[in-house]
């Protein structure tokens, strides 16, 4: 593990957390604006030009509202839940690259090591590489973490504790149903989330997001072209993990009065909402890095950008490219919200267990076969398409419906559909 | 008569084809619709800056019409007050002044409680001389209940304002009083 200048790191943490918080504020405005545009409205436009100062007013409203702690709640967990949600959301972004990064030097194997202080030994070359790596700035709070993706998933799984604690401590049936749904949903969707990413990890040979980015840039091809199916599964699981429509059952306003945050008000509600948007930002960065080549954009960035644009230009261009990709995903999140209606709970579960987990598993098997037999990686693209179409064809072949089930069912009185008696 | 089995038609949802089972074409179709709406013309009216276009039969604040000589047309017949389901019209009649040849009575006071009114327009329908009309003025505000009780002067001024603004032209014939104001036929 290389050492870092802790002042730079502290400044970067402050800047990144501040940027995330401000982006969240403006994402809420963007959410409202996009909702309005989709519904042929104009959206908030009274505060500042085009409503651009609306987030400040919204934040001020959150601050100034009365902070109600109902008498019937379990106070400790009620207060803990927003902290857990917010804390895990902020922790998860620590390893995600948000700009130009360089993977740490790989460990070198030296057989029969010479004396430690002999000139130009592998050890000294490795130390020189380490020093060169430590000297340059990486746009990630904790760069070079070799378990990076594992860490993101671990912290992301902790985030559900915020939801469960909120729902449990509220002592309210709607909140509890919301948090129950959330736990079932997140347990189900963690599996395809992790399995779909395993292919990418195997391709790059590392769990380090920076190395995965570097691997795509060296190969000149984004992972999404090799593994479109893995990307689709990952995207769908991310929608479920972020509680976004069509997977927003934990907080479905129409049935659960807001779900797990029913009893929250004021800034505690703000923190819960903020955590959700921070998750969106983290996962969008992650998707850009894992599947869309990070800061790589053909035609704009090359492998020797620092010679072309200078160090500052490189940093700005790379961060801008990555941020643009991230915002594309966020825009997709927001448009999909108004496109697909919410799933029923059994549909949600059958999508995860009957469709996505088998597909992710088959996808992983294909990656393993390719690795084992050394086939070219484009055969993974073919395999993804074939798997996807086969799954659809299987659906057509096996698909019955309630009144004409494909499978054998119990003999029923005439006229009654299956499942009624 | 109870429903029998033959009355019930079981409707099935259509079976999905391959494209439907793949989900993605349907989702792309939906996204096209959503994104298409994002760039459509917006229907929002920016209210305080942009006044709504109301239909001419909108029922807003009342007015008392003036005739061609600027006098109130009302003949104090109480028909509007009788027709009013909310009992918000209060009229005190007096003998018409000298020189008002076409009528016997005129309203000494004519008061409408605009808070009590339900804006049904029945006074307008009941009026035999087309003296009371509902205008398209909709932004009716006041700081107290007393301010919202409109007397004769206020109602006549509504007439002046709305005819001058051109929003509500006079709908009756040439300022003449209707048949109810004519003297009864001689026996």
UniProtKB/TrEMBL annotation, chain A:
This is NADH-quinone oxidoreductase subunit H. Pfam families: NADHdh. The chain crosses the membrane at residues 6-29, 76-98, 147-168, 189-208, 220-240, 277-295, 315-339, 351-371, 377-397. It catalyses: a quinone + NADH + 5 H(+)(in) = a quinol + NAD(+) + 4 H(+)(out). Coiled coil: none annotated. NDH-1 shuttles electrons from NADH, via FMN and iron-sulfur (Fe-S) centers, to quinones in the respiratory chain. The immediate electron acceptor for the enzyme in this species is believed to be ubiquinone. Couples the redox reaction to proton translocation (for every two electrons transferred, four hydrogen ions are translocated across the cytoplasmic membrane), and thus conserves the redox energy in a proton gradient. This subunit may bind ubiquinone. GO terms for biological process: aerobic respiration. GO terms for cellular component: plasma membrane. NDH-1 is composed of 14 different subunits. Subunits NuoA, H, J, K, L, M, N constitute the membrane sector of the complex. It is found in: Cell membrane; Membrane. It is a multi-pass membrane protein. It comes from the Bacteria. GO terms for molecular function: NADH dehydrogenase activity; oxidoreductase activity, acting on NAD(P)H, quinone or similar compound as acceptor; quinone binding. Belongs to the complex I subunit 1 family. NCBIfam families: PRK06076.1-2. InterPro entries: NADH_UbQ_OxRdtase_su1/FPO, NADH_UbQ_OxRdtase_su1_CS. The lineage of its organism: Bacteria, Pseudomonadati, Planctomycetota, Planctomycetia, Gemmatales. PANTHER family: NADH DEHYDROGENASE SUBUNIT 1, NADH-UBIQUINONE OXIDOREDUCTASE CHAIN 1. PROSITE patterns: COMPLEX1_ND1_2. Its EC number is 7.1.1.-.
Automatic annotation (TrEMBL), chain B:
NDH-1 shuttles electrons from NADH, via FMN and iron-sulfur (Fe-S) centers, to quinones in the respiratory chain. The immediate electron acceptor for the enzyme in this species is believed to be ubiquinone. Couples the redox reaction to proton translocation (for every two electrons transferred, four hydrogen ions are translocated across the cytoplasmic membrane), and thus conserves the redox energy in a proton gradient. The lineage of its organism: Bacteria, Pseudomonadati, Planctomycetota, Planctomycetia, Gemmatales. [4Fe-4S] cluster 1 binds at residues 74, 77, 80, 127. It catalyses: a quinone + NADH + 5 H(+)(in) = a quinol + NAD(+) + 4 H(+)(out). Its EC number is 7.1.1.-. It comes from Limnoglobus roseus. This is NADH-quinone oxidoreductase subunit I. PROSITE patterns: 4FE4S_FER_1, 4FE4S_FER_2. [4Fe-4S] cluster 2 binds at residues 84, 117, 120, 123.
């Amino acid at each position: 593990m290389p050492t870092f200048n802790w002042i730079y790191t502290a400044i970067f943490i402050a800047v990144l957390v501040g940027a995330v918080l401000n982006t969240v504020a403006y994402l809420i405005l963007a959410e409202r604006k996009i909702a309005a545009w989709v519904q042929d409205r104009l959206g908030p436009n009274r505060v500042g030009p085009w409503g651009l100062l609306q987030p400040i007013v919204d934040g001020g409203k959150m601050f100034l509202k009365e902070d109600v702690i109902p008498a019937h709640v379990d106070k400790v967990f009620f207060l803990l839940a927003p902290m857990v949600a917010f804390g895990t959301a902020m922790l998860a972004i620590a390893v995600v690259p948000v700009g130009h990064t360089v993977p740490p030097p790989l460990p070198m194997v030296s057989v029969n090591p010479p004396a430690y202080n002999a000139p130009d030994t592998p050890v000294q070359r490795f130390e020189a590489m380490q020093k060169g790596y430590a000297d340059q700035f990486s746009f990630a709070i904790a760069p070079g973490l070799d378990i990076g993706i594992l860490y993101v998933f671990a912290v992301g799984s902790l985030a559900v504790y915020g939801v469960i604690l909120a729902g449990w401590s509220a002592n309210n049936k709607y909140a509890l149903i919301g948090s129950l749904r959330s736990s079932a949903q997140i347990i189900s969707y963690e599996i395809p989330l992790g399995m779909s990413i395993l292919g990418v990890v195997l391709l790059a040979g590392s769990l380090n997001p920076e190395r995965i980015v570097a691997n795509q840039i060296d190969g000149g091809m984004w992972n999404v072209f090799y593994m479109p199916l893995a990307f689709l599964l990952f995207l769908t699981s991310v929608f479920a993990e972020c509680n976004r429509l069509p997977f927003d059952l934990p907080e479905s306003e129409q049935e659960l009065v807001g779900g797990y945050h029913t009893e929250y008000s004021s800034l505690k509600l703000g923190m819960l909402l903020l955590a959700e948007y921070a998750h969106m930002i983290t996962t969008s960065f992650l998707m850009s890095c894992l599947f869309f080549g990070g800061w790589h954009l053909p035609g704009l960035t090359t492998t020797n950008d620092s010679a072309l644009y200078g160090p500052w230009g490189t940093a700005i261009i790379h961060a801008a490219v990555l941020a643009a990709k991230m915002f594309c995903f966020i825009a997709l999140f927001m448009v999909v919200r108004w496109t697909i209606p919410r799933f029923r709970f059994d549909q949600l579960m059958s999508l995860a267990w009957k469709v996505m987990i088998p597909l992710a598993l088959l996808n992983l098997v294909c990656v393993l076969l390719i690795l084992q037999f050394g086939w070219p990686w484009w055969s993974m693209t073919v395999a993804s398409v074939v798997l996807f179409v086969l799954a659809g064809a299987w659906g057509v072949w096996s698909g019955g419906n309630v009144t004409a089930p494909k499978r054998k069912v119990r003999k029923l009185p005439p006229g009654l559909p299956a499942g009624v008696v | 008569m109870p429903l029998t089995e033959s009355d019930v038609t079981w409707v099935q949802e259509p079976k999905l084809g391959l494209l439907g089972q793949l989900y993605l074409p349907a989702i792309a179709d939906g996204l096209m619709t959503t994104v298409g709406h994002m760039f459509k013309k917006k229907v929002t009216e920016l209210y305080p800056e942009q006044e709504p276009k109301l239909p001419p039969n909108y029922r807003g604040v009342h007015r008392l019409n003036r005739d061609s000589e600027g006098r109130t047309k009302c003949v104090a017949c109480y028909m509007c007050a009788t027709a009013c389901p909310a009992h918000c019209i209060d009229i005190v009649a007096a003998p018409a002044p000298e020189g008002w040849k076409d009528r016997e009575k005129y309203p000494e006071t004519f008061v409408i409680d605009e808070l009590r009114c339900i804006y049904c327009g029945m006074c307008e329908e009941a009026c035999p001389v087309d003296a009371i009309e509902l205008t398209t003025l909709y932004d009716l505000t006041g700081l107290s209940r007393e301010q919202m009780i409109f007397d004769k002067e206020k109602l006549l001024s509504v007439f002046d304002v709305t005819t001058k603004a051109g929003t509500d032209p006079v709908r009756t014939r040439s300022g003449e009083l209707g048949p109810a104001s004519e003297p009864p036929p001689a026996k």
